[in-house]
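Lest this sound abstract, we let one protein speak, letters for residues, whole numbers for local backbone shapes, and leave readers to judge:
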Amino acid sequence: MKKKYLSLYPLITSIILLFTLSLVEAQEKLAPDIYLIRFTDKFQNRFKTAQAENFLSLRAIQRRVKQNIPLVSNDLPVSTVYVDSLKHMGFNVLHESKWLNAVSVNVVDIQQFNKLKDTKFVLPYTLKSVLKSNDSPGIKFDSETTPVKFNSKTYYGPSYNQMAIHHGDYLHSRGFRGQGMLIAVIDAGFNNALNMSSLDSLWHEKRVKLVRDLILPDGNVFIQHEHGSEVLSVLAGLSPGHLMGSAPKADYVLFRTEDATEEKDGNGNTREREYPVEEFNWAVAAELADSIGVDVISTSLGYSLFNDPRLSHSYKDMDGRTTIISQAAVIASSKGMIIVVSAGNEGSNSWKYITAPADADSILTVGAIDANNMIASFSSRGPTFDHRIKPDVVAIGKNTSLQQPDNEFVQGNGTSFSAPVIAGLTACLWQSCPDKTNMEIIRAVKQYASQYFNPDTIKGYGVPDFRQSFYALNPDLFEYKDKLICSPNPFTNTIELQFEKIPEGKVRLSVFDIYGRKVIDKQIYVNSEIPNIISTNDLFYLAKGFYVIQLLSDSKKLKTTIIKI
């Protein structure tokens, strides 16, 4: 993942410019010689919301119908009349954004902007003042890989922990591995992804439905940065004994929106290009993902500081509605997609906080933990500037199993890798209950996370439990009706109890020895609305032997025999 930022225009229909500002300064600068031109409306648009099939795929329309999402004006493409007018003025139009009602343009001669003086369809914008901080632009990606040799013979191999901590392997065992779901990966490039062994089935089964480079026209995303390749392996990897992705059977679309080329600054130092044009590129990719019917967007990019400090963001901008990319993420969610974003790797840096679009509302922002549920020091902290809980959840982002473009199976660090873990499992969860809305799925992921009732600004709502979320969304599929299932059995220390919902929300837990003596008797509180799967170590101090464990409420009595070894 990478960090950088830009501030977005105020949401008003007009802005009065001071006479001292030139027209160029009134345009929103995205990068050297690249500017954003926003339109006032969508006048003379040749598309109509009543004819959505002309600009949205059938799959995209069905997603809206299923979730009762109406078509609105920002679904309509930008006015071709306005775009053609800019082209006639000599502007080189790069990309169009219907959600932002804007275009990015390449401008070699700034005098071109004088041609906009008499136009009434261009919305002016005042350039952000110079950042007063001495912070330099941050590194692009919050990920780091270290080669590790693996010899595991189990099916998941070393990727077992990153699935099992969420009971994601349970979803997989039920047959939910992402089949029929469409996931968009927006990143910096997918170098050699065509030849990575863990992705063989992805290409052989022709499950990559679209590839698009938004940096270079007709660019080849498979010879660009390796970051997207590693992220894709966490999602789609399928190499038994080495790597199992979180959604290994889903369909994918791949977008390159991040320019990882290098340039020299004023001091002669070389660094990767960091400009807000990439935020706009992300918005364009998200719109394209929406139009072709994508279900889940997984993105491991984030923005705060840029090479041009006048364009950089501050923590104050992390309010979920200021930056271009965060606005686009919120709109993407409003179209019925689930947006999963890495929180950032600024926890140990001076910035500390999440980066955009991790601050957006109605999405899943993912922080990083290790296999022992300890927060990774680098994982960006919340809250948002307007005091909302962020990150939303956490997943293993320290020593995450993945594959590199050179085909080495390694472990990597970064919220870049915790985000695709959650993105893939969320897609599998949605696959199990396709009648649910995106927000119902997001709510279920958060509600059954480990610290939902005591969220904080470090882990958010905690570690999601996708098995619990599965039963919450599919209560009729709970296979332990009228039974108390204990596992493992025999057990040594901790035992897991699985039982149907208890309407009273509380139950008496009792344990009897072979003589009928009650050795444990306590009241526990359980979820009254869904089947329960809880762990307890209360039996740790019992002597080895046979016991009867019983759960008793006003309406239910469940019991079974267990063995302590």
